[in-house]
């Protein structure tokens, strides 16, 4: 493993906050992701790019495939293979919920959505869910999706949201789709959150 070169304390702290400490880990990121991270400026990216090149490594480039919705915060996520429509659907749901993207939420959720947060009364309906998500919106620095799994009518995802103030929010969502079809909307979400 190759240590990250000297890119300045703010940029180093930003990468450390998402667990990135080696050039090999940097090579799993996109430049556009780094540009959105607070503390990582053009100079740090230039130094990282040169160091990657020196070690025959490169930034990820998903500009032509695996198109994902645009956000104002850094998104760290890998779908590994791009032949899993429900995994993309879960990813898009997570991005839409984190950014308050109402049109995207409308497109991935069933009208009869049921949202379950253990210890609270379930929330019924897509519109009520979207209103709750928009009301609880917070400014994010990073969304790190650590895993997305799907099988048939079920799926799950977990990861870490980092706010602009540095607060970490750990989440896990268990998802049920309306049917087994590859483009079936999400009909139920059970959310576990640790702040």
TrEMBL record:
Gene3D superfamilies, sorted: 3.10.450.50, 5' to 3' exonuclease, C-terminal subdomain (1.10.150.20)
Protein source organism: Enterococcus silesiacus
SUPFAM superfamilies: C-terminal domain of RNA polymerase alpha subunit, NTF2-like
Record InterPro entries: NTF2-like_dom_sf
UniProt entry keywords in alphabetical sequence: DNA-binding
Molecular function per GO: DNA binding
Name by which UniProt lists this protein: DNA-binding protein
């Amino acid at each position: 493993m190759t240590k990250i070169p000297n890119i300045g304390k703010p940029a180093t702290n930003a990468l450390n906050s998402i667990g990135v400490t080696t050039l090999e880990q940097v090579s799993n990121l996109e430049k556009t992701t780094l540009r959105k991270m607070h503390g990582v400026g053009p100079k740090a990216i230039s130094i990282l790019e040169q160091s990657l090149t020196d070690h025959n490594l490169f930034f990820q480039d998903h500009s032509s495939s695996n198109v994902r919705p645009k956000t104002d915060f850094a998104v760290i996520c890998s779908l590994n293979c791009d032949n899993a429509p429900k995994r993309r659907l879960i990813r898009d749901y997570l991005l839409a919920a984190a950014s308050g993207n109402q049109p995207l939420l409308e497109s991935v959720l069933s009208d009869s959505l049921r949202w379950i947060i253990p210890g609270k009364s379930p929330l019924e309906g897509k519109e009520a869910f979207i209103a709750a998500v928009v009301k609880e919106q917070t400014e994010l620095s990073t969304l790190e999706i650590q895993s997305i799994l799907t099988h048939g009518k079920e799926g799950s995802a977990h990861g870490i949201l980092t706010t602009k103030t540095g607060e970490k929010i750990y989440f896990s969502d268990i998802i049920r789709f309306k049917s087994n079809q590859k483009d079936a909307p999400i009909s139920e979400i059970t959310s576990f959150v640790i702040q």
